[in-house]
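quick one, 257 residues, struct below
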Amino acid sequence: MKLFNLFRANFRKEFIEMKRYLPNTLALLFTCYIIFLATFFGIMFIGDPSNFESNVQYSILSVVFWSLTMMTMNFMGYLIITEATRGTLEQLYMSPLGVWKIMLGRIISQFTLQSLMMLILLYAAMLTSGQWLNLNPLTTIPIIIMTIASMVGVSFMIAGLAIIVKQIQAFLQIFQFILMALVFIPLSAAPFLVFAPFVKGVNMVREVMMENLTFTEIALTDYGILILNAVIYLIGGLFVFNYCERIAMKKGLLGQY
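---
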């Protein structure tokens, strides 16, 4: 019950902030749509006409997932920076539930709201391009949940770094281009990226939506790799965050900015 109340409170907080700063929320969604349009018209004018449909579908999913991964994986880093700037970071540590549970509740809440935004972006992109993808929620949702687990793990790692260093905005700006490369580069062109967070999951969702695959048509080895990837990064992220947290407490960095 405590965890449910924690999630409900954080969801309400994130929703209020998103509604209160509605122009910023709309600007973010519009920026992602503009990036898709740039990709779409680039494919239209200089792309291979024989692969036009598949290229457009690939670009739609790549832009949507890049936006989702960027907002999810950078979220905790910016959260720590914001709390430290406001002087409220230490107050989070007064909660009996623990900071990592609060942050987990916030990132799940944020991801839920972001998913709704990305769904709007997805339909806008499909409507603009005339290319309709097979959403197949019974197959894509479980894959996305496991993919998000690895993203959350990396986000915890970034949050741990932010607790110690505080100013990591430049790193996060560079990191978004690394995420773009990981999302846009197909796994067939760089098989070693299967060990990177979320890449396998994005590739599986892309195959489901573009090739109309069902849950049973995906190989069990793909599910095994996806689950192993999620577990390793999530556990690793929590370990790194708790380790950085202990260092910050030992050096008295929580109250400093």
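The longest helix spans residues 220-251.
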